Amino acid sequence: MNKTINVQSIVDTIFEDYEKGREIDRMEFFGQPDQDIVTDILQKMLRILYPGYYRDANYTPTKAKHMLAALIEDVIYDLGRQIEIVLVNDPRYMDSTKEVRRAAAEEICVQFFYQIPKIREYLDTDIDATYDGDPAAYDKIEIVLAYPGLYATTVYRIAHELELLKVPYIPRLMSEYAHSTTGVDIHPGATIDKYFFIDHATGIVIGETSEIGQHVKIYQGVTIGALSTKDGQSLRGAKRHPTIEDNVTLYAGAAVLGGDTVIGHDSVIGGSAFVTKSVPPYSQVLVNIESTVSAPEENRE
Questions:
Q1: Torsion angles phi and psi, residue 107, rounded to 5
Q2: 231-252 in b/e burial notation, b at 16+ Cβ within 10 A?
Q3: In whole angstroms, what separates CA 276 from the centre of its chain?
Q4: pLDDT tens digits for 80-128?
Q5: How far is Cα 149 from Cα 48, in angstroms, rounded to an integer?
Q6: C or N terminus of the chain, fewer CB within 10 Å?
Q7: Are residues 117 and 92 in contact, defined by beta-carbon separation less than 8 angstroms?
Q8: Alpha-carbon torsion angle 160, 165, 168, 172, nearest 10
Q9: What kind and span of H or E run contains 26?
């Protein structure tokens, strides 16, 4: 027997649940960005960073400067609007007028766009590191078009600059979009130097206070993370994640944990190693460790 569904009864039940005063019960608009617009901004940023690779159907080199100007104006408008919205959650601006937040958002956009040459400089080194480190790469074009590791790194480098400008929410939305797309989770607060290479991607986690030097290569499943965070929000701002010095390779499944952990330069951390203590330069860690591994005698200073 068919029954008529009492939709109003269901609505009343759910609205009663909304009235319990929990965080999940918010119904008012409170300065949240539009995730679809943030994703669209990312796609347009790819066209700015890689003009010959990500482009619309009308792109030609002869029109490049004109099209770049139009694209930048478009992104500045959208990004500025989203930043203006989220600044109501920033203690510096939450009591300010809309006009003040709009002016601040415009200034942040300008500062961000002046960092584009720096972002592209770093990405060029990331492409070089990927090509030099992967003999399976047909050429650098393939890397830009097809490698999820470079895509995740690109989104990180965009989000990181916005994070440095103390923009709420938007950098994390960008990094989580890349996470959902590639399986690579890089917090925008992490510090990653030039010539960074992610091989194969998938399952990689790099925490907020991680510091990564130049010429670092990491494989799938690597975690550069924190030890137990049972103290929760009291750890905000503390260094919870490792420092990885220059010329380090982290093989698949390795976990390097803790804010006091330093992996010395020119070291190799083997697959599935679980590292919670610092290791000196030129080390090889091929098994789980509970204490510091010494460098080979001939390489000690």
A1: -65, -40
A2: eeeeeeeebbbbbbbbbbbbbb
A3: 23
A4: 999 999 999 999 998 999 999 999 999 999 999 999 999 999 999 999 9
A5: 19
A6: N
A7: no
A8: 0
A9: none
